[in-house]
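Tutorial sheet, problem 5. The two components below are modelled jointly, 895 residues in total.
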Amino acid sequence: MYRIGYLRSGDPGTATTKAFLQELRKLGYEEGSNITIDYRFAESREKLLPGMAAELVSKNPDVIVVCCGPAIDVVRKATNTIPIVVAIAGDWVGQGLAKSLRRPGGNITGLSPVYPGLYGKMLQLFKETVPDMSRVAVLLLERRRHYQLLKETEEAAKTLDLTLVPVAVDGAEDFPIAFRRIESERVDGLFVLRGGLLHRNKKLTTNFANKTGLPTMYGHRQEAEAGGLMAYGTDVVTLFRGAAHYVDKIFKGANPAELPVEGPTEIDFVVNLKTARALGITVPKSILIRATKVIE
Amino acid sequence: MNDDGAAPESPVDDRPPPRDRLFRKYALMFGALVSTVLIAGGLMEMYFSYQEAKSALLRIQREKANAAAAVIEQFVKQIEAQIGWTTHAAFVPRAEDLDQRRIDFFRLLRQAPAITEITYLDAAGGEQLLVSRLVMDVMGSGKDYANDPKFRKAREQGRYFGPVYFRQESEPYLTIGLVGRGRDKGVTVAEVNLKFIWDVISQIKVGRAGYAFVVDSQGLLIAHPNISLVLRKTDLSTLPQVESACAQSGQAGAGTAGKIARGLEGREVLTAHASIVPLGWLVFVESPLSEAFAPLYDSLARTAVLLAIGIALSVLAALLLARRIVRPIGALQEGAARIGSGDLGQRIHVRTGDELERLADDFNRMTAKLQESYDNIERVSQLKRYFSPHLAELIVSSKDANLTESHRRKITVVFCDLRNFTAFSSTGEPEDVTRVLQEYYEVLGAELRRFEATIDHFAGDGLMAFFNDPLPCPDPAARAVRMALAMQQNVEELIVAWRKRGIRLGFGVGISSGYATLGHIGSEEQFHYTAIGSVANLASRLCDEARNGQILIDEAVHSEVEDLVDVEQIGEVSLKGFPKPVPVLQVIGIRRESRDLPD
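Model answer (structure tokens):
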């Protein structure tokens, strides 16, 4: 009987958790028969996370699955012996989660949706969709890593003749201020980086974008499905399925220090034509050819 | 030391062999025989089972390897084909054509999820187009790849397969280059994510601990269920199975029969492989020997248990069988022991319906014969008391009854008796009479034995004996006379003793020679060996005539003993039963000259 500790900083993400359990079942693990799962959801109340992490650790699980951001930091401190599978983390080496992607070297391994140059790709697709775009607001988290990404993206922006305007948020309360700032900056496009907080508040962002008629490029498909213009990136559901495979490997005796971090393999490209029509944008064929999902 | 040099039997070995030796011997023999057969059979079966299990497993592994190789080949071929679709026969690329190609590349990215990046190099090796899933597309960079193997090799051989490399240090990639068709001399290069191959390989399971892995043509590990081994760029070219497989690679499709070798971890494994032809890669499917042979070991254990049961049963059967054989033999031995200790009345009862029963019967017959012999010996000793010992032995030892059949022979007959005995026996005390007779016969008996006379009969004080029958002797008359003289001498002493007791008796002897008829007279149950004829009558009458101390003989006797004894002529005497008077002589004594002669 294996034991899994499952810690989420947000809501009980039904889609992701369901996908995780489904994939576990495919690998032969059934809750109640050969695995037990302890669930803890902080629902954005970060203060609860340390207590929850301690609880999970005290139950002595065979593995802890965690996502994202603040939850990861807390669990790291709670144990350095119990294997930890991080479903989504963008900055493995920078955050000290792993010594290298090839060989994490500690008790933490997992998946990364990030690839160097990916944001450049996204900008390129964005620009191809809205060729007249020249000033793009970049909504990011007040995090060193995001600033790094921003710098990389600025290189790409130059080749695309784009000016980037970074707008950072640190908490849910920052969004209104950010939106006001974006409006004042007179940009003709909005580029939202991947980040847990940003993903959790996608409704706010998409509403704002639609209200202001801003074409927006997101990192998560759900945003495009929720009304954003386009999204390019690995689906979080896919990443949680990947997490199940890591759990399986660890149950079979793999050492997390030796399990390399998995990069993005399946990229979803969602284009919302309804939004495009509303924004008066004609999406070129070359974009549509590459889209994995087109919403009419 | 015996003459033939053999070691003498140790005197201590007179002990009989231990009991149950035969039983133990046979039981052991049977048990050992059957056990040996069972074990031999079992071992042979185990050997064949081992071979069968091994070849069956190798077959399975070979098939899995072939299947995996086929899947991977298929995967690569398909990508090749898909890339091929993007090259157009007739084009020399121009700007617009580049646009078309770009669209084709987008389509390719949609159709082939394993392809992450496609590049088009023009006829001079310059990069004209780069379309990627993960990074920005680049148009017309002109980057020079003229000397890059992916360009050169593709141009030379039509296609190019690069070595496996890793992106992000952890993702395996393969570069495939394909030259254009017809007038299109450019090269299309695709970067292929090999995660799909990793999935195929890691899904291969053989039993609980068997797995598959892939090495490239140099023996470098490129896929393995344990990813870290691949990422460490493990070189397996030193493993014997890899080495030999690489050596014989180039043979399409099928792998070898598979064999036992040392695997990655150093354990012994069953290994089979197949080659992936266009790439020169090798798929190995291995399972640890211990696990591979687990079902075999199970069946071996089963066989061993059955064998043990079989041996136990055979031991039991051996014991029973040995008992069945040994028991009648034991009965024989016990019977023989009893008989040996003198109990001749015992008979051995063995009813096995075979040779042992016959042996027992023969044994019983032998015992009966033995008993007869003993009885005979008993009879002989009895007979010896009635007859002269010689006659008794003769009768007993002679095989036929001829000796006692009637026959005529010349014998010398001796009659003797006591004078006045009749009167004495009727008036004397019975104890005295018996005592006198006992003393008398002791004396007579000693002389009869000494001279080996045949006793015809005795009745009261009268005795008839004869010489020369049934055993012939050379001097019957002389013996008779000497015997008579000895008797007379000894009885004379008795007479003196008796007179002191008030008993007045005398002793007289009559001896005659002549032909008589001798043999058994009487009925079947009771008979008597006797001499019949006038010679007997004559000796009887002579005895009647003899006074105390007289030994009377006839002419026939005299003629035989002339030189031996001194005689006195009595004259011719008329004897009852004889028509003419018979010349009678009296024996006085041994002549002085003859006295020194041995008796």
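Marking note: The mean pLDDT of chain A is 90. Full credit if you identified this.
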